[in-house]
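Lecture notes, unit on protein representations.

Consider one protein chain, 404 amino acids long.
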Amino acid sequence: MTNSTKYYITTPIYYINDKPHIGHAYATIAADVLARYHRQQGRDVKFSTGVDENAQKTVNAAEARGAKDIQAYTDEMAAVWQNTWKSLGISNSDFIRTTEASHKKAVYAFLKKSIESGDIYKGYYEGLYCVGCEEFKTEGELVEGLCPLHKTKPELVKEENYFFKLSKYRQPLLDYIKEHDHFIQPVSRYNEVVAFIERGLEDISVSRLKKPWGIPWPDDKDQTIYVWFDALINYLTAAGYPDKSYTDWWPANVHLVGKDIIKFHCIMWPAMLMSAGLELPKSIFAHGFFTIDGTKISKSLGNSIDPTELANQYGIDALRYYLLREIPFGADGDFSQARFATVYTTELANDLGNAVQRVTVMINKYLSGAIGEVALSGHDESRYREAMEHFKLDRALDEVWELV
């Protein structure tokens, strides 16, 4: 972890086919905690989040709602996401929308570099495409013919596309990852990515044919830039790329992502950056999946939880505390409203509440209501700092709770 005076942290940019749920809030709250910590250490922090508007699922969601103007739909949904993060006290400095002119400028500048590197060519592709993942799937990745994540049957797509020479970067990626053992965290994700690359990489399609929504391919009106190639560049957009000032912030200190998108972030994105001759982010940390009372979060099951409703009921800080204390950061976990209520009562109301009440009484009784300078005698704060610097947020809370 850098000791620089600047610190750049990002969340994924989220699809806007629906409003934010508790899983989205988990990643964003974790990023906010880290951003606030680094500000307290005296660093100048850039904290970027945002929304991915160029996906096919955006078009599908707009049509399902009867929206005739897709851009108007994205404007409405982007505002919903921004207002949600504001209501949860998220301290992001940047909010990226992939329909912004600044992002399109960054995408075109980046693509030009990759083309100049000889890494883009036109070819014919046939494959199974999952709209939910916005990704081509192999037969081996399917379970009984369905996407294991979305439980839907992929579409068979046959078309002429532009391709990126991902296979060219197999060995450079392996060399880089093995030389920078903290580049991919936690170690379980590091091992997963290395094993995937070692099995071999194939070139990937980075355009779609005759899609009316998205960023048009330069000089080819029949092609649209593949949503993931476009979306990953948002991290550079937020830094100010392609203007020279982007180097004030790039490379990012950490990308926080979900474990379901590590192939894009830990393989495709680093290879793209190598192709464009740009530095790689210092680290990529993948958090785990969350279930709700033992069941996967699913819109169709109706178990998606609105984080603002929980925050209104228990308070923003209580929600942050429960999410980061209950689920080790990087591991899978389960969210239970019954467990939340128990933790709120026993740990926050009773343990912390009683400690604050007793300390307040003593301050008023013995110090005339003025705290003055406080020394945490006998407490080793270095363990807390080490936990925060290495993304072990639950362990950092353990250290705080030692004081309580």
